[in-house]
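Tip: read the tokens left to right.
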């Protein structure tokens, strides 16, 4: 069980209000977004010079304490887009929604098919497809941490919109709807089992067609979002694809293990990547062009996750990277989660949109300690 002191410690560990990490130049441009925006998100985009009608679209969701430009630089997505001619959409969280710039992945009003951040992202996708004559059958979504959890939200609430997704250090859809639940799920405690998790995805949209292909990534030394969440995500999606628990095949190179589940036609529809010894973040290989840059939560373990994900989706050729050093461990700096009125800890976004709580409440003793921690976490004003 999570103790009160443990929860306070986790809340106080975050650093709300800190400027997002920015390394390298901003390659993105603002999108003149005119669609419905109930989630109050910013829309950014990258359109390579060689973009042609019918190109694919990749939606990229940054993690807590990050912004779109910083995540693009660290992940290498725009460099890969230059090479293969696909468009990028970067929905960006605003500090007015979440002090730690986390997408609100467990707030009920933000993770439903209609309303909140999920609807804003879907509307941005629709506008990108129309304005640039992109291929509606080749739309993909990926994200890190809270962005990974929001990727799960988009795949669950709008499965007809996406051909595939990739969740990096994220959590399964519908696993939490309150701040305490979110912290517990991040630690790998509690939560519904696979069949119920799958049912929550089914109920999110009423979808009765083919489900998106899914790539899942996690470090085994992730102390921000427990690696058990990767197994929960896989367990959530196997029933949707009508697959059993045993993978079709698995392979290991150095510290990188990949398991693959194929459908009846032999097409890989789910894959799970475990990076031994890696902490919380996106695996990158900076010495390979288009494979990212090392920075907070972008971890140099010699694995080009961006290139592999694009290859798994069929929009890029396979990228060969150096073998991850056997003894190298890449811990991740503490992530600030937070929310619109949310928790602070790695990938959380908590609380619903303005959920004002008096900041100057007269408190003493335990109550004051709790309120001070919540305020430091961005959950109280």
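Filled-in amino acids:
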């Amino acid at each position: 069980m999570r103790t009160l002191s443990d929860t306070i410690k986790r809340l106080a560990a975050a650093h709300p209000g800190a400027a997002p990490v920015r390394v390298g130049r901003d390659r993105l441009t603002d999108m003149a977004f005119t669609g419905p925006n109930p989630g109050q998100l910013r829309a950014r985009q990258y359109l390579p010079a060689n973009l042609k009608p019918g190109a694919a679209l990749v939606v990229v969701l940054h993690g807590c304490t990050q912004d779109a430009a910083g995540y693009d630089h660290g992940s290498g997505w725009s460099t890969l887009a230059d090479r293969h001619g696909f468009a990028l959409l970067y929905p960006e969280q605003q500090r007015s929604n979440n002090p730690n710039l986390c997408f609100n992945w467990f707030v009920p009003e933000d993770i439903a098919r209609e309303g909140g951040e999920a609807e804003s992202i879907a509307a941005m996708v629709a506008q990108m497809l129309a304005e640039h004559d992109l291929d509606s059958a080749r739309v993909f979504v990926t994200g890190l941490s809270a962005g990974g959890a929001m990727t799960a939200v988009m795949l669950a609430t709008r499965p007809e919109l996406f051909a595939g997704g990739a969740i990096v250090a994220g959590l399964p859809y519908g696993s939490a709807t309150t701040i305490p639940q979110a912290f517990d799920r991040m630690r790998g405690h509690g939560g519904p089992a696979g069949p119920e998790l799958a049912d929550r995805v089914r109920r999110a949209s009423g979808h009765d067609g083919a489900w998106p292909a899914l790539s899942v990534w996690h470090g085994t030394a992730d102390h921000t979002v427990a690696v058990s969440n990767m197994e929960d995500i896989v367990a959530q999606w196997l029933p949707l694809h009508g697959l059993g628990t045993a993978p079709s095949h698995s392979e290991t190179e150095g510290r990188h293990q990949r398991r693959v589940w194929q459908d009846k036609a032999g097409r890989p529809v789910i894959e799970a990547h475990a990076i031994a010894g890696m902490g919380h973040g996106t695996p990158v290989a900076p010495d390979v062009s288009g494979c990212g840059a090392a920075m907070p939560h972008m971890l140099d373990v010699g694995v080009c996750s961006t290139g592999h994900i694009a290859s798994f989706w069929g929009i890029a050729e396979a990228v060969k990277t150096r073998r991850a050093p056997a003894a190298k461990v890449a811990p991740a700096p503490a992530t600030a989660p937070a929310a619109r009125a949310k928790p602070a800890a790695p990938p959380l976004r908590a609380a619903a949109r303005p959920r004002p709580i008096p900041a100057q409440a007269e408190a003493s003793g335990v109550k004051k300690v709790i309120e001070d921690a919540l305020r430091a976490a961005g959950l109280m004003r």
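The chain has one domain: 4-376. DSSP finds ten helices and twelve strands in the chain.
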